[in-house]
Specification:
The protein has 274 residues and is mostly helical. The protein contains 12 helices and 3 strands. About 3% of the residues have low confidence.
């Protein structure tokens, strides 16, 4: 018979399976599903049961892929999430003999490829470049973080962990942590870097990092991620939007292999922007 999960997890075998898998993953050192994800899986199967019952089904055994397609069509945006739950449920149902075949096994949820996040227009990029290269009253950290992300696709982690030993003054290059090649800086970014180094000297610190704050001045710790995030927020932006904008441009100009080597990214990470 078609069943749906009850209030108590222990009252429904499929719920017990999901919880057991979660606990097993934790013991093995793997990343377990959150309880919220377990609840979503159970809610999906419950909603499917209600949908099928309204269509005249009285047992799981008679459910076919066409029935699942009709259910998934109710909300195409949730197809991938719903199908993940249905695959888990029907695989379980097949193992325990509740169904003779798994109607979800051959179903797919194609994911849209390509970048779909926020990016800046050329006019916006020009305005920001002017702000950080020639603007008055801009703090050194904001200028360096903004230009490094906008022009060189620097990540928050790379900026946080950039140290004095990563800088070659004679060649005006830097080696961002995690990258395998030295990066020649443009005039604007180099001036911003020099301003940060002057700010660092004014703090009289032994901290080896380029970006030193009043909190890290008396330590050797790197600046917090919040500091990197909040600095360009003065211009109403987050570093990831600046970096994504640059990656989109580079992905259109360079071969994927070149991009992965230059930025120390994975193939999948760079292909996402093509």
């Amino acid at each position: 018979m078609l069943t749906k999960p009850r209030a108590r997890v222990s009252s429904w075998p499929f719920a017990e399976v999901l919880v057991a898998r979660r606990e097993s993953a934790g013991r093995l050192g793997l990343r377990p599903n959150q309880l919220g994800s377990v609840e979503i899986r159970l809610d999906t199967v419950r909603d499917l049961a209600l949908h099928l019952h309204a269509k005249g089904h009285t047992t799981w055994a008679g459910v076919h892929a066409t029935d699942l397609e009709a259910f998934l069509a109710r909300n195409p945006a949730r197809r991938a999430s719903w199908l993940a739950g249905l695959r888990q449920f029907f695989a379980h149902a097949h193992r325990i003999g509740l169904v003779l075949h798994d109607p979800a096994a051959a179903m797919e949820a194609p994911q849209p490829r390509g970048f779909s996040g926020s990016a800046l227009t050329l006019d916006q990029q020009r305005a920001l470049y002017h702000r950080w290269s020639a603007g008055a009253n801009v703090l050194p950290h904001e200028a360096l973080i903004g230009l490094a992300a906008l022009l060189h696709a620097a990540t928050t982690t790379e900026l946080r962990h950039l140290t004095l030993t990563d800088i070659a003054t004679a060649s005006r290059t830097v080696r961002f942590p995690g990258r395998s090649v030295d990066l020649a800086l443009d005039d604007a970014t180099w001036r911003a870097l020099e301003a940060c180094l002057a700010h660092r000297r004014a703090l009289h610190t032994d901290n080896p990092h380029v970006l030193v704050t009043r909190l890290t001045r008396v330590t050797t710790n790197s600046a917090g991620a919040a500091h990197i995030r909040d600095s360009p927020a003065q211009a109403g932006l987050l570093p990831r939007i600046l970096r994504s904008t640059r990656l989109l441009t580079l992905a259109g100009e360079l071969d994927v292999k070149q991009l992965t080597v230059a930025l120390g990214m994975s193939y999948g990470g760079t292909a996402h922007y093509r």
